[in-house]
Structure formats: C-alpha cells, structure tokens
Amino acid sequence: MDSKKFKCPCGGQETLSSNHLNDVCSVCHWEDDYVQFVKTDFAGGANFFFLNEYRALYLQVTDINYKTKKMYNLHHAKAIPSHHKGIAFVV
What we know:
Helix content is 31%, strand content 13%. It contains three helices and four strands. A hairpin with a 6-residue loop joins strand 1 (6-7) and strand 2 (14-16). The longest helix has 13 residues, at 64-76. The protein is globular and about 25 Å long.
C-alpha cells in the first residue's frame, strides 16, 4: 500500500510524505517549512527565498524537465533573493 502524499505548497505536485515537516519536493526542491507556509512572504526559514517569490519563479518555466533542473540550481545556488538585490538565475 502506498503512503499518502501531500501537495507541495510551491509547485502543487503530490511529492511530500508529510505536511509542513520540512520534506523537500523532488520536482521544485522547495523545503516544506511550516512557518514559510503560513507566512508566504517570510524569508529566512528553511528556504532562502520566500514561498510567494519561489512559486512565481516556478510558474515562469513550463518545461517540467528544465523546470526541475532550474529550480534545483536556483534553490542550491545561494543566490541573493530579489527582495534584497535581484534574483540570480543559474541554469
């Protein structure tokens, strides 16, 4: 029997094994942080970007294979968030 999967608050795919307990989405690489889920404009939790910002970046890319790679690189690049100096895209 498959265990229940929860939707990622960023990309909406059912990839998380728990709800808001810091699982990482295998598609968009968002870490499901409860504080950032409740306060979607809060940066400084488990993720470098805030949820609304990261979700907007995710929705800009339409090809799923490219999207997964781009979001992985963006999430792990230690880029400076746009609310500080502008977003650095790494592809």
